[in-house]
Structure formats: structure tokens, C-alpha cells
Amino acid sequence: MTQEEVHISSYFSHAVVLVLLLTLTTISVLVTGWHLGALTVAVALVIASIKAGTVITYFMHMKFESLFLKLMVAGVFLLYALVIIITFIDYLLR
């Protein structure tokens, strides 16, 4: 059997992540009030991706995982970005 390593996060890092997520949530709410046209959705998606990456990194302890698993998660984010970009290109060329 292999021993599992226990990763204990500090309260300070949780507080920093909380402030970051609350700040990004506030920014995403404020962006909906700005009239940026098609960029409004793009900015909201970028902010949501940053928030998802933060949650995956700190609350799902991805920063302590192996390189292979990190690459797999990065591949999923890349695929997600590719689908969104293709969707925007299709929308703009109609």
C-alpha cells in the first residue's frame, strides 16, 4: 500500500482565495452593466474560467497533484476555450 500525503491549507490562503473569488464575482456582476457588445460575454467567460481555475487549484488541491493530472486538466481547459472560440467565430460570421 502507498501512503497518502496530507496537504493542510492555511487559513490565510483560504482567506486570500475568498477575497479573490469575491472580487472576481463583483467584477463579473459589474461587467454585465457595461455595454461592451459581444465582448461582454467573452469577458464574463474569462472571469468565470479564472474563478474555476482558482477553485480547482486551491479547493481541489490540484497544485499538489502530479504533472500528468495537471496536464489533463489543462487539456480540458484548452478544449473548453477552443469550443468557445469556435462558437464565437460562428456567431460573428453569420
Description:
It is a single chain. 71% of the residues lie in helices and 0% in strands. The protein has 94 residues and is mainly α. The protein is flat and about 55 Å long.
Biggest pleated-sheet summary: none
Shape: flat
Number of strands: 0
Distance between the termini: 58 Å
Instruction: Work out the strand percent.
Output: under 5%
Overall average residue pLDDT: 86
Which class of secondary structure composition applies to the elements?
A: mainly alpha
Unreliable spans: none
- Please tally the helical runs, counting DSSP H or I stretches of 4 or more residues: 3
Order of helical and strand elements = HHH
Task: Count structural domains.
Answer: 1
Radius of gyration: 17 Å
Binned, the helix content reads over 70%
Q: What structural keywords apply?
A:
94 residues; mainly alpha; 0% strand
